[in-house]
Amino acid sequence: MDELAAEIRAHYCKVRRQSETLCAGLEPEDLCLQGMPDTSPLKWHLAHTTWFFETFVLKPFHAGYQSFNDCFEYLFNSYYNAVGKQYPRPRRHLLSRPTVREVSAYRQMVDECVLGLLESPGTADCAELCHRLILGLNHEQQHQELMLTDLKYCLSLNPLAPVYNDTPIPASQASPLTFSEFPGGDGEMGCGRAGGQADSVGGFCYDNEGPRHRVWRAPFGLANRLVSNGEYIEFIEAGGYRTPAWWHSDGWATVQSEQWRMPLYWRREGQRYVAFTLHGELEVDPAAPVCHVSLYEAQAFAAWKNLRLCRESEWEQAAAGVAPAGQLWNRLCHHPLAPPANQPQPRQLYGAVWEWTQSAYSAYPGYRAQAGALGEYNGKFMLNQMVLRGGSVATPADHIRATYRNFFYPRDRWQFSGIRLAYDL
Amino acid sequence: MDELAAEIRAHYCKVRRQSETLCAGLEPEDLCLQGMPDTSPLKWHLAHTTWFFETFVLKPFHAGYQSFNDCFEYLFNSYYNAVGKQYPRPRRHLLSRPTVREVSAYRQMVDECVLGLLESPGTADCAELCHRLILGLNHEQQHQELMLTDLKYCLSLNPLAPVYNDTPIPASQASPLTFSEFPGGDGEMGCGRAGGQADSVGGFCYDNEGPRHRVWRAPFGLANRLVSNGEYIEFIEAGGYRTPAWWHSDGWATVQSEQWRMPLYWRREGQRYVAFTLHGELEVDPAAPVCHVSLYEAQAFAAWKNLRLCRESEWEQAAAGVAPAGQLWNRLCHHPLAPPANQPQPRQLYGAVWEWTQSAYSAYPGYRAQAGALGEYNGKFMLNQMVLRGGSVATPADHIRATYRNFFYPRDRWQFSGIRLAYDL
Amino acid sequence: MDELAAEIRAHYCKVRRQSETLCAGLEPEDLCLQGMPDTSPLKWHLAHTTWFFETFVLKPFHAGYQSFNDCFEYLFNSYYNAVGKQYPRPRRHLLSRPTVREVSAYRQMVDECVLGLLESPGTADCAELCHRLILGLNHEQQHQELMLTDLKYCLSLNPLAPVYNDTPIPASQASPLTFSEFPGGDGEMGCGRAGGQADSVGGFCYDNEGPRHRVWRAPFGLANRLVSNGEYIEFIEAGGYRTPAWWHSDGWATVQSEQWRMPLYWRREGQRYVAFTLHGELEVDPAAPVCHVSLYEAQAFAAWKNLRLCRESEWEQAAAGVAPAGQLWNRLCHHPLAPPANQPQPRQLYGAVWEWTQSAYSAYPGYRAQAGALGEYNGKFMLNQMVLRGGSVATPADHIRATYRNFFYPRDRWQFSGIRLAYDL
Amino acid sequence: MDELAAEIRAHYCKVRRQSETLCAGLEPEDLCLQGMPDTSPLKWHLAHTTWFFETFVLKPFHAGYQSFNDCFEYLFNSYYNAVGKQYPRPRRHLLSRPTVREVSAYRQMVDECVLGLLESPGTADCAELCHRLILGLNHEQQHQELMLTDLKYCLSLNPLAPVYNDTPIPASQASPLTFSEFPGGDGEMGCGRAGGQADSVGGFCYDNEGPRHRVWRAPFGLANRLVSNGEYIEFIEAGGYRTPAWWHSDGWATVQSEQWRMPLYWRREGQRYVAFTLHGELEVDPAAPVCHVSLYEAQAFAAWKNLRLCRESEWEQAAAGVAPAGQLWNRLCHHPLAPPANQPQPRQLYGAVWEWTQSAYSAYPGYRAQAGALGEYNGKFMLNQMVLRGGSVATPADHIRATYRNFFYPRDRWQFSGIRLAYDL
């Protein structure tokens, strides 16, 4: 147990610092932006991830803990109805107070209390305490990805096109699109430890990744890399956004009502496509993976190619046994690039962009959400959303695995989301 | 072939007449109502089902066919982009012309041409012709169910509470809720003839029912009857609509925004619940199956019971080999009743109300939509909707089978949709 | 009194019959249309005008009157809060019942009772009874104009372009635009009998036309005819709809959000402008008065001409002493034409189209709405609307006078509304 | 001219400094809030008022002026179409850059250039230059009032209820409501210098205040003080917000749709009313003037009292010859108080709260907007808005006069707007 506590302590310090590092070059004004109801101000993320530890660790386990500000329970609760009411999400940008400085003080106080508690847990249930801390750190890592994607969305709305990261990006090398074939058959998927208490920081998985269960897969082919911008531009120029035949009915309705003509952040400038990125406005690199497409667009592109998106069980079969590596979180580059040529096939399973699957996000057989407020973490979203797999440039390398299930609505485009093709054998 | 043609001819006359019989007691004013964008005026259904034969049978197969009115191609196209543009769905109530009388004339002319063509197909591809006629009749039967549910919705908005069917309804007999257990395991589901040309009227199934494919099912329990109004009232009175814990996140948001407090068509009158039905306003019968609930409500009810909805593969296993029988279309009764006591278990698999499943409506492995406009029939809806199984009081008995997949959005309530409970073994 | 009763009786029969004549060539389906919330189904107008007599004449004055259907008090109340709640206006198209036939029976029963009461008023206050009957008939005449404009709007949404009146329309003769100048100065405006009991059918005026009061007018010039389509086309082709400089701020916002590019009902076909009219689709006649423009458009046109709209006090000075004559209600022609050359100047003060003024609709000094529900007739609308003067092709000739104040919102276009120019001397 | 230049220079320094003083105690986060589309971030106001001088003074008159940032022409243009396109108003909160610090630098650079230009105007048209500087300073004073009202609105949305001004507010002394009577008659109103070049800072008036013109007024009575909170509470508790009879039709619709039950910023706490103010949350003082009511509420209150609001011509007659004095801008108190007992009657004509009139904001006879972009300042808003008179606690004392016309939409409540009663004699 002492070893686990030490491991958690080190991880805690690293992860918490990472959130602050992420905000380092930004101004207080930047940290308060909310570009649409789906996004939150970075200041809010900084406070909410702290609230998570305060609510689920300090209040239940730290004897004599005094809350920083009682009103924060309301202001920084995201969606835990079992904890209490929540300040309306679309209005988070209206909270000029607490200021960025006050949120920093809040973080610091909670950090001190958490580290103190970890040192002297007293009568606390240590296993549960460790479980919640590991959960809280995974939670904060998820929010780190959101901080980048939310920031990108907000900055993109400013005609001054602010640059978050001024490191130059290398040009990508194009490669042909090939496929690997998989036999399918009887098999298993999911994580056997899901929802349980991990005995190491790396042994964690979310409850929605389990239980591990049996599945039958028909044989399938899977692309050896992500779809590139160049390939996607062909779709655009072949009239993809004007041809209903390629689209699901709801997708076509969205194309019409939103007047989509290309991926989010792109604009056409003469013959070129230019995209807003965290590195500023850049010409679209044809060899790099296409990004910021909705599931509707991913599916329409696949239909145009006479192919399909993969199922999550297929993706997991391909990723099983492959160690997470690739273009994951890295402070030098916040934009997806083409894969190195020498990776084993299929390449880019991890990193670069999240891959839309054709699988609805739903409970695996035998899934039960845990009791209490933490049971709201995943289970209540198992409807209307679709699974994405593999992580992106904004995902910490120690926060992704073969069984990891991300989920968004089919229309969502502000995540680093892209396309991997598949077919039935 | 002659035999098939004769069978089709008889079925054609019966099905087409049925649509008109359904409208018999109604006034022209009733046939023009559109209560919300999801519903269509009955006059429009009468014309659209006719348009289907005109477009997919007469125009391609009837040499020298002269269209009744060229503008109808636009007015009565529902969603076939490959055919052409469509008059906006939410505005269908704005078409006073063609009048009901003109639509009747349109039906009659098309019927004459279709029957003539069936008699003398000339050089037409007879197999394809028969296939399209059978498809067109299945299409019309689907619209007959919609005609009843759309009419019910529209009449319910009139404070005069018009009565469609004045036949009295018998009181239902309550019965205890029991479960049957199924072993699961390796198996198959789906229809092996899906999308192909049927050699008999009864041999038809839609393309979305296939291909037949292998699945693995975990063992499960399935309720022996539908959830009753009495059981659902307990949920209401236990605060079900005020307790977020039972709801999916999107469901809870909908309860708040729509201010749902009970099923569609219900209102509270002192201690009683009263419901608008096609038989007029009636006190809710506790023993009869609950109806007009969304998937959100069905799922919340199940969660409150600490149970779940079934998967479509589970339902199909239970229904395999059970002949469709039960409370299906019948001109005397348009409201769901309790099941007879002596039916084999599980009861009410067919009829009474459609049963929400927890399965997203998506393509079976190996599914390909057919080419051309008819490929739009099912495939483009395989996103965002959920599968319902089993048919209802509004489903013709020869229009339901174990593999039949109906689909609606989780929020939809105006269909005859209800709840069957299940659990993991 | 007997003489007044006889005059009212004759007028009652004539006006009530007129509403029915107006609907003569229409189908029940046509009478149920509601093209937007601002419009009502003609069936509803037929019932509401009857409800007015039932509510304000029969219920208070006819001893032992039995209501036709108690629910009608709710269904056919337009906006009289003092009478009770109202069925929501945007949903009036959802009332298939009562049917057209039932509404006819309602009209007939109420007519019999009203005429009976007029014959044998018993103990009723005859002066008040006569006052309310005259008010009710003026009310019905207002609704007759709305019936035509609402019908036109609804039919225009049907791609079949139904024709209401198949009488051909003569071509108009162009004439130069000249102005008459008026000295202004101290004067009076308004009707001295406003809101009082008339001693003849023709002696009536609405309460909002009074009290007659003193005003001071600066000297002004007034156009001798309405603005023509040809002149308005020049404005369109000079980029009027693309140039913010001519528009009020709210007008420009509306042009953008509604994407207005020409008057309501117009479309461009090559070099021509074609308009939907009650006589079918017709090429726009350059010499005829422009019609179906909002105040925003009328004002922008005037600004482009470096002129202005007139004030209602100015219009009334010009019209004082001019007997109402011109292109008023006439069953042969439901579309505005150019004025005859030989009329005294200014021409077209009455008829053809209502003339937008730059005067906000507000209470004259000393105005008090009458007590009770009938006080809601005019007073509560004296905010946010603008005054129009002069009547149109849809106004009965005995329903217009120099002091008559019509009022609509600046964005409204579905009335027969046009433009007369003015300037400061 | 040198004297005028010196006067302007002093006034310029004072007014510009005032905007910054107003923001002194606020954080960068506070300066970026936009609580609704009608409001703007204070940072935006600071930049826009600077843009006004840059656009209308420096660019045309300062030879060799280099713009601070070319993109600001787009970002900080409010509504001048003749200058160019504008960044969408509802999105102003999305501009984290330029930061507060950068906006300060922008202000400083523009100030230096303006003062330099005033010192050495070179070949500039000095009269026009002075005119524009005076206009720009009046413009900035208008925005100072908006800065306070916008800030108040935004802070009110924060559950932490931030305090802008922590100076305590004295209790008000109640006084009876009495009336002064005015004979009316022939007279004049408006400013004779409107739109022209002022020969002193104090000689300025806006173009919408003129031309001075003749009017006729009926005799009227005018309340000797503003309506108090105590009087307004009586209206609330008499069911004022539940009784349609007191409301204009559009007002009643707004009460329903917005669920208004009391003035903006008020909430009920047991038997007390508590209001958010710039001094924090305070119990409502019954003797102080009611504030933050819409015209709809002001008019309904007056109707309930069987009185009316005054016309702007009436207010101006009462104010003519009264020097502006009263509770105007003052850094110690940002909330309206009761009037001192010893003021001459009518009291509170100036200051405390703006007084809604029943006059629509429209052009006086003979009004012409000036040519060019500055002609958009007032003229294009002369539709759909209503006149308010007299200034408020947020109006600088040297920015109000008897002819000053403020204007807002009838539904607006976030200004310091209140009620003065009147009646017809």
What does this protein look like?
- The first copy, chain A, is α+β, with helices and mostly antiparallel strands and 425 residues long.
- Chain A folds into two domains: 2-156, Four Helix Bundle (Hemerythrin (Met), subunit A) (Up-down Bundle), CATH 1.20.120; 179-424, paralog of FGE (formylglycine-generating enzyme) (Alpha-Beta Complex).
- In chain A, 31% of the residues lie in helices and 13% in strands.
- Chain A contains nine helices and 13 strands.
- Chain A has helices spanning 2-22, 42-61, 72-75, 100-119, 126-156, 229-237, 249-258, 295-304, 312-319; strands spanning 179-182, 185-189, 213-217, 220-223, 266-269, 272-277, 280-283, 308-309, 354-360, 386-389, 406-408, 417-418, 421-424.
- In chain A, the strands form four sheets. The first copy, chain A, has a four-stranded antiparallel sheet. In chain A, strands 11-10-9-12 form a four-stranded mixed sheet. A three-stranded antiparallel sheet of chain A has the order 5-6-7, with no helix packed on it.
- In chain A, β6 and β7 form a beta hairpin.
- In chain A, α1 packs parallel to α5.
- The longest helix of chain A is centred in the first third of the chain and has 31 residues, at 126-156.
- Chain A is globular, with a radius of gyration of 22 Å.
